[in-house]
């Protein structure tokens, strides 16, 4: 075996790979960022789990019910919003909290009788977002703990352990969605994956523009009496139509095979679809504007897209994010697209819930388009 030739060939491969700085950054940054994302979601180095957001409505306002409210509010496992019943249920319906606990009128008066004399037990309604049903057992368990603690203290003790008696109240779990149809988990899956793979289409459209520029097509078009805005605007329009057709086909399959339904506003769904299609197309043009070559641009564009879709809740629903990440992800357009499609499908919300997603998506589209028109070079940069 010719070891000298072998070493030279190995060295050549290593030099070629490590001299490609963009590929190297992609290979190192992608696993670090994605691993950090999932680590943040599932606890990372935190000593305690993320607090559960709940809404609490006290319709009783008795000594015991107020003690229960105070105890729940002080629990480090909960992030509590004290609201009236209608507002609390609405927060759960929109997915802003995991559950809305409603303490009924007469709760404090009936608890001691139910505990000591076997009287009628008050019913505590727990309205929950069906996409977050896994949190229900924990919410119900902690609720029982705080009720028994408050009841025990009101009876002159230091707290009554829940295991010492049968619970003096019952809970009634209520799915809190505007739609009357049962929750369909495929609806969120198709929203997330539809957003992800249509954005990938946008990458290919942008890379296609770079390839056309390499062939001199854009330079020849520029020689015609056509403005930069007209040429690039036509590209955005064609890309948006393509994205819209793909999204329609994806949702048609979801409806036909997996029984996904638009339980909210059809007009709102259409508006979000159009706004996202424009975002995808303008994103593709932005890639073409800032990319030097098709080869160098594709890897970085894929990395940027992966970051956007994971922060947007396409892989893991955004409600399981830590609170700080939920707030930070609002700066990412994909979060608005996924949440908007969810709102119009399984959440069953009205057209008013589509306004904010549409405005944000269109704003990003305008920004991407403006930067693309400003930065686009008609000839491929050299060097």
Short description:
By secondary structure, the protein is an alpha/beta fold. It contains 14 helices and five strands. 38% of the residues are buried.
Architecture overview:
The protein contains 14 helices and 5 strands. It has 383 residues and is of the alpha/beta class. The protein is elongated, with a radius of gyration of 27 Å. The mean pLDDT is 82. It starts with a helix and ends in an 8-residue tail after the last helix. Helix 10 runs antiparallel to helix 13 and helix 10 runs parallel beside helix 14.
Number of strands: 5
**Widest sheet: strand ordering:** 2-1-3-4-5
What is the helix/strand order?
HHEHEHEHEHEHHHHHHHH
Major β-sheet annotation: 5 strands, mixed
- Helix content class: 55-70%
Name the beta content range: 5-15%
Query: How would you classify the quaternary structure?
Result: single chain
Outline: elongated
Report the span from N to C terminus. Answer: 39 Å
Please give the count of helices.
14
Low-confidence stretches: none
Provide the structure class: alpha/beta
